[in-house]
Design a protein that fits this description.
alpha+beta, 16 strands, eight-stranded mixed sheet, about 425 residues, Nucleotidyltransferase, domain 5, about 20% helix
Length: about 425
């Protein structure tokens, strides 16, 4: 009854025999009859007459070398997991080197909320436009799916433990039953905490119960392959990465001048920690490479609790949803035409003002804007902020006190003198 069927056997005579499901096995209740019942009750024949031969349906399927093509059907559906057996994401966007891209937001907007930076280096002008995410309206919030949820068919209004009687004149098909029974979420079976005392050094049951409430048990299995010693990584991708206990906002910036060197990035994706202000940027040739940038940031910093983004199409694609569901990451999206709700826009305002000053002060070539942006993010991550209690963003994010000695000896776009092998005099070679 719980999965949409009627849980009975209907005979050719029109009789219904109830079936009980006990621990996943169908059982038929049987009891010896009296002489009176044998004489008065109708006799129903379930099998054909004659001697039973159990070898009639025998067939060796594996003897046919082409058995796979014979058992497959066109309506069979195969699940293609976005992760391989080692927990790595399989569908990375290939980098399109040397392809110029346009700002998906179109021409610069007159909206004061739109961020625009003009960097002048010689006769070349570089324009950065913050992504205008006025795209099609999607759902306001996409909740992360729970991997432990199981959806079954359950009769509407059917109380637990009550068996529904089937009238003889009722003859519904399986399709009608599934159409009339809406899907419902089953309740998880209560955990017997006393069975886990061996794993927890035989501590009191109450302590084990508190432990289960304070932790998660999302992995269905922790072994990959037939043997445990063959497991290099957990088959659950969530267990293969560390967690980042904060929400992370992201936004895209674009430039008119491609970056020097291959593959010539024409834009950058920035990620900003909502609590720590930790800022990272990754170059891209196309906005469709956002899944690659997201996975790179997760690999470097850890999986965030919530990803905050605009309503850009490439930031809400099916591949992004696969990554967020597999890694148990929430997704928050700003309202259409309300870019100011995205926290990355606020942080980008500080970053772009510093970037404009740095490139103008050091006379940096326009095609080196991504190098300057990476240097600037590293400097801002190691600079104490008043809003953080005069702690650095890197310390707030990682809990470790960083060392800034390397920043005291080197500076971006600085002239470095090195000696050649033949001439040891300082200043003989400048790089």
């Amino acid at each position: 009854m719980k999965v949409g069927g009627r849980q009975v056997i209907k005979t050719v005579d029109g009789c219904y025999i109830p079936i009980n499901i006990i621990r996943g096995l169908p059982c038929m209740q049987m009891e010896p009859n009296t002489d009176e019942e044998f004489d008065t009750l109708p006799h129903v024949t379930l099998t054909q007459g004659g001697e039973w031969d159990p070898t009639v349906p025998d067939h060796m399927l594996t003897d046919d070398p082409d058995w796979v093509s014979k058992v497959k059907r066109e309506e069979d559906q195969e699940y293609d997991s976005p992760f391989d057996n080692r927990g790595e994401h399989k569908h990375r966007e290939p980098v399109r080197a040397g392809v110029s891209i346009d700002n998906p937001s179109g021409p610069p907007s007159e909206d004061p909320d739109d961020v625009e930076v003009n960097l002048h280096g010689g006769n070349i002008e570089v324009n950065f436009h913050a992504d205008d995410a006025t795209r099609e309206v999607y759902q306001a919030y996409q909740e992360v799916s729970n991997l432990n949820k199981i959806f079954v068919y359950e009769g509407k209004g059917m109380p637990d433990g009550e068996v529904e009687t089937v009238e003889e004149e009722e003859d519904e098909t399986k399709e009608d039953i599934e159409a009339n029974t809406p899907p419902a979420e089953t309740k998880p079976k209560p955990v017997d905490h006393s069975k886990h005392r061996r794993q927890f050094l035989h501590v009191p049951v109450e302590k084990i119960k508190r432990t289960f409430a304070a932790t998660t048990q999302n992995a269905a299995s922790v072994a990959c392959g037939p043997k445990a010693n063959q497991t290099l990584k957990s088959p659950n991708p969530t267990l293969n990465i560390r967690r980042r206990k904060e929400a992370v906002a992201t936004d895209s910036v674009f430039a008119d001048a491609p970056v020097v060197d291959i593959p010539g990035h024409a834009g950058a994706q920035i990620f900003v920690g909502r609590s720590s202000l930790l800022t990272d940027c990754y170059g891209f040739c196309s906005a469709s490479e956002f899944p690659n940038n997201l996975m790179d940031n997760i690999r470097e910093r850890g999986a965030m609790d919530v990803l905050m983004s605009d309503h850009a199409n490439y930031e809400m694609s099916a591949r992004i949803k696969d990554v967020l569901r597999a890694l148990m990451i929430g997704h928050w999206k700003s309202e259409p035409c309300c870019q100011h709700q995205n926290f990355a826009e606020h942080r980008w305002g500080h970053v772009k003002s510093n970037l404009e000053w740095l490139m103008a002060f050091l006379d940096v070539n326009p095609d080196c804007w991504l190098l300057a942006l990476n240097y600037l993010c590293s400097m801002m991550n190691l600079t104490a902020e008043k809003i953080l209690g005069w702690r650095t963003p890197q310390e707030v994010a990682t809990g470790e006190t960083p060392d800034i000695c390397v920043l005291l000896f080197f500076m971006f776009w600085d002239i470095v003198h090195c000696a050649c092998h033949a001439n040891k005099q300082p200043g003989s070679q400048k790089g």
